[in-house]
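Recall the central idea of this unit: under ordinary conditions, the amino acid sequence of a chain determines the structure it adopts. In this exercise we apply that idea directly, starting from the sequence alone.
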Amino acid sequence: MNTILIRIRRAAFVALIVSSSFVLKGCSSSPVDAVTRDYRSLLVISQLNASYYTEPATKAKYPLIKGSLSNLGPKPLIVVEFTVRFKDKTRNVIWEEHAYPVYVSNFSFPEPSQILKPGAKTRFAFKAPKCPPEWEPGAVDVEITKVVLGTSV
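Accordingly, the structure predicted from this sequence is:
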C-alpha cells in the first residue's frame, strides 16, 4: 500500500513539473512580427551604458541603462520596444524588462520630435528598480522586440 502511495505522489510530482515547464515556456518571448523582423536590422543601439545609479535625494540605488537608438531605415517609427535582460556574474539572465525608447500614441499628443524619423537618433535612459541585487553592472542584453512604423513624414 505504501509503495502505491509513493508511486502516485511521484507521478503527481512529475506531472506538476512537466505542466509548470509548459507554463513557463509560454512566458518566454514570443516570435517577432514580420515588420519587426525586417526593420530591426535598420536600427542601431549605440553608446550603451549599464551601471548602478544612486538617487541623490533618496539614496536609492538601482540599475540604469542609457544609450542611443538610430533609425537608419527609410520609414518613421512610432513604437520601438526593447527587451532588456539583466545578468549576474555567471552571465545567467536574472531579470527581464521591457522598455520603450520610442512610443507615440493618440493619447500622447504626438509631436514631430517624438516620432523617430528616418536618419534620426534618440537618446534613452531606463531605470530598473525591481532588478535583483545579484545583477552584475554592465551585464545586459538589449534586444529590439517590437517595431511599429508610422505614416510617411
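The radius of gyration is 21 Å.
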